[in-house]
C-alpha cells in the first residue's frame, strides 16, 4: 500500500512550513532559527505513529530526534535526514509556504532534505491505518547541523548509537541524488589560518610586516599543491583530492600596513588518503611559505576520511534496482562521513538533484516522491 503523490506532498509541505534554518545561515527572513521546532514537530509525528521517541540535545537548543518504529523483526534499518536548511535571504517569495503547485512542493528544505522524511512519514502513517508493519525495525533520525557546523548532528547520533549499542543493518543517508544510490564521496579537512604581522604607516612599509603579503604567499603555495594533486593517478572513480582557498580577510585601513590576515582553506580527501596526514601537510606548507608567524585552527571534526565502499554491496544494488537507476559517486560531502562503520551497509539516496539545492527557489516533484515511496516500500516490505 502506497499513498499517491498528492498525499506524500502534503506531508513534505507540512515539514517545509516549519522553519529550521541552520543558525550559521541566520538572517532577517529566516524566522525561528535552528532545528528545535522541527525536532519537536518530528517527535510528535513519530509518537503519532506509535514510535519510541528520543530527543538528544547535541547543541544547546538544537536536538537530534530519533524514532524507533518496531517492525516484525529486530533487524534494524535507519533513515538519516538532516533537519537544518541553508539560508533563505536570497529566496523568491515566501520561503516556507510549502505550496503544492505545478506538480511540485515548493519551499526551503523541500528538496534538501525534508522530502525524504515526508515520504517516510506518509508511508508509515498509511501502513499503520491499514494495520501493516514494516519487516525491519525502522529508526528515523532527524539530525542537526549538516549544512554548516561540522556535521555535529551526525557525530551526536553516532555517539548516541554507540552508547545504546545499536546494531544497524542498513543505513540510508538522505540527500538529493536523483534516486541513484551514492556509494562514495570525498571527505574533507578545513583549516583557518591567521597570519600575524606588524602595523605601520603605508608610507613607511619597511617599518611594518605585511600580513596580507605573507597570506598571498600561502595562497600560492596551496595553489601549487592543488596543481600537484591533479597530476596524481586517481585510485578510484572519485578522482583526485582538491585544495581550495575559500575565504581571505585582512587590513584595517587604506593607509595602514595590515598586521593581521586570515584565510580558510578546504582540502577534499579521496579514498586511501589519511585526513590527519593531509591536514598536517597543509600546516607545514603554510608555515614554510609564510615569512611571518601563523596560527592554525583545524575546523574539521571527526575523521575526515572519504566515504567509499563497493558499488556491488547488496544494499546499493537493491536501491538501484528498485529505483531503476545506477550506483554512482558524488563530489559533495554528507553525514555518511561520520557513519563509516556504524552500519553493515550504507548508501546516500534521495529524490531530486543536488544541482537544484540552495537556489533562490527550491522544490521537489511529486513524481520523485512517488519513486522514493516505491523504494522505501521495497526496503521496508510492509505486511
Which strand order does the major sheet show? 1-2-6-3-7-15
Order of helices and strands: HHEEEEEHEHEEEHEEHEEHEEEH
Could you name the ranges where pLDDT drops below 50 across 5 or more consecutive residues?
Answer: none
How many angstroms separate the termini? 9 Å
Could you estimate the helical fraction of the residues in percent?
25-40%
Major beta sheet summary: 6 strands, mixed
- Number of strand segments: 16
Describe what this molecule looks like in 3D:
- The protein is an alpha/beta fold.
- The protein has helices spanning 5-16, 36-48, 110-129, 152-164, 211-229, 275-289, 314-323, 366-380; strands at 52-59, 62-69, 76-82, 100-101, 104-106, 137-143, 168-174, 182-185, 187-196, 242-250, 260-269, 294-298, 307-308, 328-330, 343-349, 363-365.
- The strands form 4 sheets. The protein has a 6-stranded mixed β-sheet with strand order 1-2-6-3-7-15. A 4-stranded antiparallel β-sheet has the order 10-11-9-12, covered by helices on one side.
- Helix 3 packs across helix 8.
- It is built from 8 helices and 16 strands.
- The longest helix has 20 residues, at 110-129.
- A hairpin with a 2-residue loop joins strand 4 (100-101) and strand 5 (104-106).
Amino acid at each position: 500500500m502506497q499513498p499517491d503523490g498528492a498525499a506524500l506532498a502534503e506531508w513534505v509541505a507540512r515539514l517545509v512550513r516549519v522553519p529550521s534554518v541552520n543558525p550559521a545561515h541566520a538572517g532577517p527572513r529566516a524566522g525561528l532559527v535552528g532545528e528545535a521546532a522541527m525536532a519537536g514537530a518530528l517527535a510528535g509525528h513519530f509518537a503519532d505513529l506509535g514510535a519510541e521517541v528520543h530527543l538528544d540535545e547535541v547543541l544547546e537548543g538544537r536536538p537530534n530526534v530519533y524514532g524507533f518504529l518496531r517492525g516484525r523483526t529486530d533487524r534494524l534499518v535507519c533513515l538519516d535526514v538532516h533537519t537544518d536548511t541553508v539560508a533563505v535571504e536570497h529566496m523568491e517569495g515566501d520561503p516556507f509556504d510549502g505550496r503544492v503547485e505545478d506538480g511540485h512542493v515548493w519551499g526551503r528544505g523541500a528538496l534538501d532534505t525534508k522530502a525524504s522524511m515526508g515520504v517516510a512519514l506518509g508511508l508509515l502513517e498509511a501502513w499503520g491505518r491499514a494495520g501493516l508493519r514494516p519487516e525491519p525495525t525502522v529508526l528515523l533520525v532527524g539530525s542537526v547541523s549538516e549544512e554548516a557546523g561540522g556535521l555535529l548532528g551526525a557525530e551526536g547520533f553516532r555517539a548516541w548509537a554507540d552508547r545504546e549499542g545499536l546494531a544497524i543493518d542498513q543505513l540510508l543517508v538522505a540527500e538529493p541524488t536523483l534516486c541513484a544510490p551514492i556509494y562514495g564521496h570525498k571527505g574533507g579537512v578545513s583549516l583557518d589560518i591567521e597570519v600575524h604581522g606588524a602595523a605601520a604607516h603605508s608610507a613607511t612599509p619597511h617599518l611594518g610586516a605585511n600580513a596580507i603579503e605573507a597570506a598571498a604567499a600561502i595562497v600560492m603555495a596551496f595553489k601549487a599543491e592543488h596543481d600537484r594533486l591533479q597530476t596524481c593517478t586517481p585510485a578510484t572513480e572519485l578522482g583526485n583530492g582538491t585544495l581550495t582557498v575559500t575565504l581571505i580577510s585582512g587590513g584595517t585601513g587604506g593607509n595602514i600596513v595590515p598586521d593581521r590576515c586570515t584565510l580558510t582553506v578546504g582540502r577534499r580527501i579521496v579514498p586511501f588518503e589519511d585526513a590527519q596526514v593531509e591536514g598536517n601537510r597543509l600546516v607545514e606548507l603554510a608555515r614554510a611559505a609564510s615569512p611571518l608567524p601563523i596560527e592554525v585552527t583545524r575546523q574539521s571534526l571527526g575523521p575526515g576520511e572519504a566515504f567509499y565502499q563497493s558499488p556491488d554491496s547488496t544494499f546499493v544494488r537493491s536501491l538501484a534496482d528498485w529505483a531503476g537507476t545506477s550506483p554512482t559517486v558524488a563530489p559533495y560531502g554528507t553525514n555518511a562521513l561520520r557513519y563509516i562503520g556504524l552500519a553493515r551497509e550504507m548508501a546516500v539516496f534521495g529524490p531530486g538533484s543536488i544541482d537544484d539545492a540552495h537556489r533562490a527557489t527550491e522544490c521537489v516533484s511529486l513524481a520523485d516522491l512517488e519513486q522514493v515511496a516505491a523504494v522505501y516500500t521495497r526496503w521496508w516490505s510492509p505486511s
